[in-house]
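INFO batch 0412 | record 1 of 1 | parsing
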Amino acid sequence: MKILNQLFRGKGYVDGITIINSEGEILFSAKLNKKLSGSDSELDQVGKNFFEIYEGMSAESSSTIRAMELGVPVYVEHQALKAKDHAPIYITSLSIPIMNANRIVGAIDLSTQENDAEEGGKSSEPIELKSSAVPVSGVDKLHATSSANFKLADIIAVDENMKRAKSYIPIVAGCDLPVLIYGETGTGKEVFAQAIHNVSARRNRPFIAQNCAAIPDTLLESLLFGTARGAFTDAIERKGLFELADGGTLFLDEINSMPLQLQAKLLRVLQDGTFRSLGSKEVKHVNVKIIAATNVSPLTAISEGRLREDIYYRLSMMSISIPPLRQRRKDIASFVKYYVAKYNAVFKKHVEYVSRDLLQAFAAYEWPGNVRELEKMIVYGMSMVSSNCNTLCLKDVEDKFSPSAGQALGELPSLASAEKAAESHGTGGTRERTLPDALAAYERELITGAFRQAGGKIVRAAELLGIPRQTLQRKIKKYQITLD
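INFO prediction complete | emitting tokens
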């Protein structure tokens, strides 16, 4: 109890307990602090998906989802929690995975609301608690959710393209110019960002990471730039991430998800290091190295109106492109070796070998989720392999292979059927059909099929399609897809 007392900032008790299953469905909810409940009562929440109740929550930012993915407890401070029709609050959470017969089936989350008087602005990225016992004297280290743990030597690079990307890190770290990192979801953009910070002269200063897609638009501005007292109802003086990162590095992931008007405010910081907190007239100055990342091609994001062109040119003076795992297959065996060693300790297993058929399957797989998917697959395999077995085999992980779109959704609709779908949505005859119209109808058909295959589960549907949940939600809104 003493360590829990310290983990929760000396509060000594929790405000809420939530249990979810591996699909994100709420099995039990007890909210002693009604601000955590949202608009639904505890009984109304049971049976609903965790992401449906809390806006802006994602698999990346949720400590409960991360605990299930990694198979270890995850502790996070200053996590923004916004229930529908409620003002956002900040919580501290400890999420612990639940196992049944060596299989992770859910997680239990203990959370407490942070005191409004406490200074906010810490990163909401979850921190993995190591499998070894954490001494009470080391609890303060767990509070450093903004620390950079990965170094240049931690980056696995056997493939020549990956070696070139890695070799550019000391160059971009040697100056204060902003950096733009492009790579698909799961390629390790934050690992690169942390390595840049640790190579730079700012290594002993703060490193703060924030996923721009994980926070509601209305909350992101105040999180980045802080708030002045009275800026809105119940607003208090609160530092933003830019001030907290002063002298160090601020990593903005998925910057293409940042609202365009907020990108304009970011441009001022990039130009002269100045900004105003929300509701304040005072101009503040910070010395921060900005590393931004995008999970789609920057030029595509510009053409789709999701990234300002002036922001792109300001950020891309120094840029790194991380190739997807399917384009650097030579790295796969090294990643497997690394993750097996890591999760031997977590699961108390003694795996020394990997079967040839598993490595062959990995080599042939397309890896839509990249390195993150590979780690998740190894975690699952290590949880399933027998404790007296020294070899990880294909049978231990084959349930976690994401089928290709065609295999996952049954037979893919042909372009003709896509055109027919487009006609039914009022896009005219085939001769008048533009390529974007046909592709949009085709994409809508795929998404609808994914939901049928996933039984209406949005998280599972996103996995089948090989795209982030946030991207799927945007497409659902774009195509006005009904999830009934």
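INFO post-check: The radius of gyration is 23 Å.
INFO record closed
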